[in-house]
Write a structure and sequence with these properties.
about 190 residues, about 0% strand, 2 domains, mainly alpha
Length: about 190
């Protein structure tokens, strides 16, 4: 059997459907269709998300400028210098030996000095972190001193030889001199 295809001889209809838009409204309707398109909405959402992530990364990486008054800076400097003085006294003066000839007393005093070094380093870092208005030169010097105190404290704990301790003590002395100059009261 052969199948024949029916061919229509009717011409295609060019009549406009009854609900066809009038002139000028056709463009508006296609624009609205674009806004309602799921692809367009997804693209806009993606663009907003990318912008939000970029803004968040920029806010995280770019430091916020510090606006501190002279009074805030002076107060922060005073607190950091006070902490430095406390740690310096604890490390340099230590605990007096109540029994100078007793080896156990000497070990106890040495342990207190080691504790003052390592604990003092942490105390200095915490104070500097809590006082962001402190002058940058003081912050840098005190943080550097805290690092040296940590190294020196552990060198004493490990009973390192003098070739390890001597350069650290020399560095600590120069850092102490530098901080003393920064923390020295200004004469008016």
């Amino acid at each position: 059997m052969r199948y024949r295809r029916r061919m229509s001889v009717e011409s295609p209809r060019h009549d406009a459907p009854e609900d066809a838009p009038e002139d000028g409204h056709e463009k508006r309707r296609s624009f609205l269709a674009l806004w309602e398109s799921p692809r367009f909405v997804a693209f806009v959402a993606l663009a907003i998300a990318v912008f939000a992530v970029a803004a968040a990364v920029a806010a995280w990486l770019v430091p916020v400028p510090k606006h501190v008054s002279a009074e805030q800076s002076t107060q922060a400097k005073t607190k950091v210098c006070y902490t430095y003085g406390t740690v310096r006294n604890a490390v340099s003066e230590g605990t007096p030996n109540p029994h100078p000839g007793d080896p156990v007393a000497q070990t106890a005093v040495a342990a207190n000095v080691r504790l003052a070094m390592i604990g003092g380093a942490s105390y200095l870092r915490e104070t500097v972190a809590a006082e962001p208005a402190a002058p940058a030169d003081l912050t840098k010097a005190v943080t550097s001193m805290a690092d040296t105190l940590d190294k020196l404290g552990f060198a004493f704990l490990l009973m390192s030889n003098e070739t390890v301790k001597a350069p650290l003590l020399q560095t600590l002395n120069s850092q102490t001199s530098q901080i003393n100059k920064i923390c020295a009261p200004t004469k008016k």
